């Protein structure tokens, strides 16, 4: 790892990271015959539509999904297997939970949901295995570039570079990540907001992030992590400081979700 001070020039490049372990190549065997299950998310989009701010919609929709089962490898596709757009609101891994909630919160009505999901999950919205954001580094970079999110660089942020090799079907991948030390994160806790996206940097040389989720700030200013946890088998809220301590986290990356621009073109 090579840390350096963050500058405006390298701000966008510093949004990287993204564990292939968080995604998987995709396994059709783990799915029902259809990869589309969106009745619950359709209802939640309608119920959240009156909320004026993206943070409020993220909080409402993600809260409604608490208790949903964890399941990895739900995406369908591979280097030699056709990619399919999987839409599921019944089971999640940590990244598909982010994607589903984010796409729903950015949708003015249910007709926009799948277009938003494509925009978030794939580079340029192209449903193709090589365009999928396999590394969370690419997920962050592409969702900053398409203006779904923006970097949230708090005081103390640095830059970390890694050579990623954890995805065996991809060539070695260079990633540049914004890295905020945990101590600086907690010192600047008042700058965080419910709905901010957090990625947890991995200590493994070949891996960028080991997990991701949403930050929730309660009425007393307490910080929570809302995430799909493999270890707990479901979507749940956990105290963020405890999660950081239990997982010996050294640094994180933060993104803030942008409000969709009215009339923006969907894919």
Short account of what is shown:
This protein has 267 residues and is of the alpha+beta class.
Describe the protein's topology:
Blueprint: E1 4-5, E2 36-37, H1 39-48, H2 54-64, E3 76-78, E4 81-84, E5 87-88, H3 94-105, H4 113-121, H5 136-145, E6 149-151, E7 158-164, E8 173-181, H6 182-187, E9 197-201, E10 209-217, E11 223-229, E12 234-239, H7 240-246, E13 251-257
Parallel strand pairs: 2-5
Antiparallel strand pairs: 1-7, 3-4, 6-13, 7-8, 8-13, 9-10, 9-13, 10-11, 11-12
Helix pairs in contact: 1-2, 1-3, 2-3, 3-4
Q: Can you walk through the features of this model?
A:
A hairpin with a 5-residue loop joins strand 10 (209-217) and strand 11. The protein has seven helices and 13 strands. Strands 1, 6, 7, 8, 9, 10, 11, 12 and 13 form a nine-stranded antiparallel beta sheet that branches. It has a two-stranded parallel ribbon with strand order 2-5. By secondary structure, it is α+β, with helices and mostly antiparallel strands. The termini are far apart. The protein has helices at 39-48, 54-64, 94-105, 113-121, 136-145, 182-187, 240-246; strands spanning 4-5, 36-37, 76-78, 81-84, 87-88, 149-151, 158-164, 173-181, 197-201, 209-217, 223-229, 234-239, 251-257.
